């Protein structure tokens, strides 16, 4: 199938609508295409937050809420908020959330986070930054809502560095993944959006550079599966930092 990415102007509406459409199959799709490894990567993301009892964590672009739930599992005394603009993804998140869990799921836009400045100790974002309309604008929003010294942990697809493995990865991502998507939801073009959106997404080093340029103080890269999956851990400077 020939596929064209939405324009920058269309991207937000497109992404919101398409995640609404695939919400019921999203978790299953993720399990199949990553062979379940996304669960391990999300646990790793939460381990990087260094949250302490009473801290407040925002899971941005929370989707069906995997990372938000993992935050609470690892840090039961933290306050967790999940934010997403897809009502259907949030409905699944709510349905998987036990009533007293303490996670608040909110409908909202990552480009305009409905919280005051310096509100969160940590912001997690899984497969979200690639989907927002303006990556730099979103990084600025995350910095704004983080407390000084707060941490952002970002999980997304990365670029494989070894040429042979990169070829195999591209074959899997561009040929097999859409087939799996089509098997789960025949005719759904969102499963073509996933690999194509990765083409426009910066590689690990460039993303690190963009984070530092946006105002984060440090950014560490943790690669998995030869870099096909990657986690960035970046810190907002403390008030005393230069
Ligand atoms: C690939 S899913 C990731 C879900 C979840 N974080 C995970 O790791 O499985 C991307 C999510 O980002 C959400 N999203 C994309 N752009 C957004 C924005 N500007 N504001 C809020 N949510 C957004 C989509 O609705 C979707 O639920």
UniProtKB/TrEMBL annotation:
SUPFAM superfamilies: S-adenosyl-L-methionine-dependent methyltransferases. GO terms for biological process: ketone biosynthetic process; methylation. Keywords: Methyltransferase, S-adenosyl-L-methionine, Transferase. It holds the Pfam family Ubie_methyltran. InterPro entries: SAM-dependent_MTases_sf (IPR029063), UbiE/COQ5_MeTrFase (IPR004033), UbiE/COQ5_MeTrFase_CS (IPR023576). CDD domains: AdoMet_MTases. GO terms for molecular function: methyltransferase activity. HAMAP family: MenG_UbiE_methyltr (MF_01813). This is Demethylmenaquinone methyltransferase.
